[in-house]
Each structure stands twice: as structure tokens, then as C-alpha cells.
TrEMBL record:
Pfam families: NUDIX. The keyword Membrane does not apply. One of its GO terms (molecular function) is hydrolase activity. Its EC number is 3.6.1.55. The lineage of its organism: Bacteria, Pseudomonadati, Pseudomonadota, Alphaproteobacteria, Sphingomonadales. PANTHER family: 8-OXO-DGTP DIPHOSPHATASE, NUDIX HYDROLASE FAMILY PROTEIN. Belongs to the Nudix hydrolase family. This is 8-oxo-dGTP diphosphatase. It comes from the Bacteria. It catalyses: 8-oxo-GTP + H2O = 8-oxo-GMP + diphosphate + H(+); 8-oxo-dGTP + H2O = 8-oxo-dGMP + diphosphate + H(+). Residues 3-132 form the Nudix hydrolase domain.
Length: 132
């Protein structure tokens, strides 16, 4: 049994090189901060399968697991809880248009625009490390 929580996120990159970010609901950890879309990996899922499921559930976008390329890792230690290890993937093709199914705000941002947002800590680290 792992002593850390694996989560996945995606950097969807459009034809203009912008990434899709969403704003976390106020009631959640890091509420109101911006992040790459994604979520927890369920038992029996691969990271890519979990990512495809989470993106479909949250944003009504269909991404094929085989179109998701592993990109970066980030970690966050949380008091009294297992550390979170975030696996960021990148994809440039998908079907559908974003629709915040959990009521979240979303938008397409250049790296410079993303730097100006109130980002969740791991996502800030990833935005800084992601290549243009």
C-alpha cells in the first residue's frame, strides 16, 4: 500500500500553444486557485486511464490515453496526510469543448498569462517548468 497519493493532471495544449487551466471550487483544498485539470487515480486504473476518465467527468473532453505523453512530476507534503505526487501529462489532440461540469471556471492561457494567475502550489511549479 503506497504511503503517498498518486494524482494525474493534463496540460492540454491548443494550436496557439496555450494550456487549459481550471479554477478549483471554493469548497476544496486550494479552493479558488487555478490548476491543470485532473484528479485521483482509482484502484485498478493506470495513470493515463484515470486521466482520460477525470477529464471526461470534469470537462466533457475525450482524450485517448495513448495521446497523453508523460511530462513532469511534482510533490506536495500535507500535514497529517500522505504526500500527493502529481503526474502531469501533455496532449495536443482531443474531442469536445471544455464544459465545467463541476461548476468550475476554465480558460486557455499562455505560459506568461498562467504565471499571473493564483495557481495551486504544485501547478505553479509545473507552469514554471513546462516548456514553451
Amino acid at each position: 500500500m503506497p504511503v503517498w497519493m498518486p494524482v494525474v493532471a493534463i496540460a492540454l495544449v491548443d494550436a496557439e500553444g496555450r494550456v487549459l487551466l481550471q479554477q478549483r471550487p471554493a469548497r476544496k483544498h486550494h479552493g479558488g486557485l487555478w490548476e491543470f485539470p485532473g484528479g485521483k487515480i482509482d484502484a485498478g486504473e493506470t495513470p493515463r486511464d484515470a486521466l482520460a476518465r477525470e477529464i471526461a467527468e470534469e470537462l466533457a473532453i475525450q482524450v485517448k490515453p495513448c495521446d497523453c505523453a508523460a511530462l513532469l512530476l511534482a510533490e506536495e507534503a500535507r500535514e497529517g496526510q500522505p504526500p500527493v505526487v502529481l503526474m502531469l501529462y501533455r496532449a495536443t489532440c482531443w474531442r469536445g469543448s471544455p464544459d465545467g461540469r463541476e461548476g468550475q471556471t476554465w480558460g486557455w492561457f499562455t505560459r506568461e498569462e498562467a504565471r499571473g494567475l493564483a495557481l495551486a502550489p504544485m501547478d505553479r511549479e509545473l507552469v514554471e517548468r513546462i516548456s514553451d
